[in-house]
């Protein structure tokens, strides 16, 4: 009996010791769990949340730039359909097969980086189609890397079925002394364009310029010459690739940045004064004939900062397809410290007593042409 009692007593002692150990281990586990929870809540979780917040902000920022535009907001940042800033300065517009093609200078902070092209069906939202014309790595080319390509304009020749690009070209290392016109061609509106040649039209300096096709399919180059003191117009050959000898003086008023359009059997030409990157007052020339007598009618801008063209400079004027008497004035608000960030000023051209004027608007859309 004693032996049995002792055995039972020994078993009971072992049982109490096991329970005490389990309780101790449980307390240790709970204490560790509490400490881990404390560390997670106060130290790790905020960092995770902050990281998630930062990632969400990045996503939101990216989504903010992927906007679908329904109006024009002159002077504000304008993003393409990939969410990147549109880089097409000193540009021109081509309308072909129900699509608009916006050509312009691709700019770094200061460097010329070729000619970009964007496409759109509605004029608000633009898809980047890449470089239409790139600088050439060949150091013997007129458009070698380091040359300056400005104010590209593209027209379509219905007879040759070619898209023809004209632009102002300055040769590498020559500053602005070369003053040449450049020509390139492509079988597609988006390019790539093949550079053909550069020259001075009829021996005249050629800087800021535009090209224009009349109702009969004849093309013309309008260009600043004689150190920008002369504005000239020259008729192009039927293939649009070269100037003819039909070359005439428009004015000798020291102007640049020509933008031309026709309305009601008259031609209207907007130009800028020559003040470097600084904005200035525009003026409007009027003529009944391209090679006629051009009359200076003064500044066509109206509204706040009209005397400095709303801090911008004329680039191009184009008709809106399918809308009567609808034209859009394109201008560049230059930022010489960072040319990539130069903004775009697009405004409707309006008419009063048969004379065009351009008035500032903070925001507008194409329905504005129906309200006039």
Briefly summarize what is shown.
By secondary structure, the chain is α+β, with helices and mostly antiparallel strands. The chain contains two helices and 21 strands.
How does this model look, in words?
The protein has 372 residues and is of the alpha+beta class. It has 2 domains: 1-65; 76-371, 5 Propeller (Tachylectin-2, Chain A), CATH 2.115.10.20. The chain has 2 helices and 21 strands. The chain has helices at 2-65, 368-371; strands spanning 89-96, 99-107, 112-120, 127-133, 148-157, 162-170, 180-186, 194-199, 209-213, 219-225, 230-236, 243-251, 255-263, 266-273, 282-287, 295-296, 301-302, 313-319, 327-333, 343-352, 355-359. The strands form 5 sheets. A 5-stranded mixed sheet has the order 17-21-20-19-18, with no helix packed on it. Strands 1-2-3-4 form a 4-stranded antiparallel sheet, with no helix packed on it. The termini are far apart. The model is unreliable at 1-20 and 38-62 (pLDDT under 50).
What attributes characterize this protein structure?
2 helices; 4-stranded antiparallel sheet; 372 residues; 18% helix; alpha+beta; 40% strand; 5-stranded mixed sheet
